[in-house]
Amino acid sequence: MRVLYLFDTTDRAESESVIEMASHGVVPTIVCQPDAPMRGRFEAAGLEVIPVAMRSKADRAAIAALRRLRRERTFDLVHAYYKIALTNYNLAAVGLPRVPVVAYRGIIGNLSYWDPFSWLSFLDPRIERIVCVCEAIRRYFLDKPFLPGTRLFRPERVVTIHKGHRPAWYQQPDARLPADLAIPQGAPVIGCVARMKKRKGIVELIRAFEQIPAEHNAHLVLIGPIEYPAIEQAAAHSPAADRIRITGYRADAPKIAGAFDIATLPSLRREGLPRAIIEAMAQGIPAVVSDSGGNPELVEDGVSGRVTPAGDVDALAAALRELVADPALRGRLGAAAHERIATRLTVERTARETLALYAGVLGQRSGEPAA
């Protein structure tokens, strides 16, 4: 099976899944940005990589390169992992013999019937399958109305396949809290790594943190660019301000996050399958998340962490307070979190499910029953 894989940058989980599929008979041709982080990994695995710079959703040079590739090569299937790659490919393929396209989707929302580029990507009815990283994204597609009383997306067209991971990728043997954060030794640390937007629920997190009794000496660390000024205002005026640290972007964020006692992401809406929580769980750090989007697909409430209703400050405070006060509970939930990533969200499982999807698509195209 000859598959053309279209990337913009490259994500480790996606890339390792492609490498795993190559070990099961797929012959990949990989298109990605020249400086894509995983390009060297692909090449070391013996896979063909064709670097193509894509600077926009309709990059003339990229379109020409993809069109030339399609004319020169024969592919059984195209799998696009990024929207920018998908739109450029769909423009390049105009007038060429049709090859089935599979597209990956990792976020909820940002698709408009009034946006021409949405029709060149996920709204394009010619796309055979849309692979969603979590069930919440699949439900978004299925619930999206089209004309009155109709839906654009049939259930069989949209599928959920979780990304696969290996805990070893995320281990931080030198994890530490840097001295500039001035956190007392032994103080429980609650951490959140994210782009600090309004929908991430950070103001609500600060309000919840204020309810943790001061005698626990818990500290809250917020890592990521601030895109919602109310976050800094809430922290500055908080009665717990002396125990809140806002770092902004940090190049050493993985090392800091590896030293958290509790990871949290209390998103209000539109959450996918957050990598920051996966990385924490892989390191045995229990997570407290909201029930937004794919969070409940990662964290089993009371088993590998805690799940609270999105926007419910009191419920979030209770979950955080429970874990801050009970190191043994943190240990049990953290161990279960590591086990969940190690056994349920594996590269091998992702590759197996993706190969089954390919077989179904190609079977349908040839008139055979879908797998």
From TrEMBL:
GO terms for biological process: carbohydrate derivative metabolic process. InterPro entries: Glyco_trans_1 (IPR001296). Keywords: Transferase. It comes from the Bacteria. Signal peptide: none annotated. Residues 178-339 form the Glycosyl transferase family domain. Gene3D superfamilies: Glycogen Phosphorylase B (3.40.50.2000). Pfam families: Glycos_transf_1. One of its GO terms (molecular function) is glycosyltransferase activity. The keyword Transmembrane does not apply. PANTHER family: GLYCOSYLTRANSFERASE. This is Glycosyl transferase, group 1. It comes from Halorhodospira halophila (strain DSM 244 / SL1) (Ectothiorhodospira halophila (strain DSM 244 / SL1)).
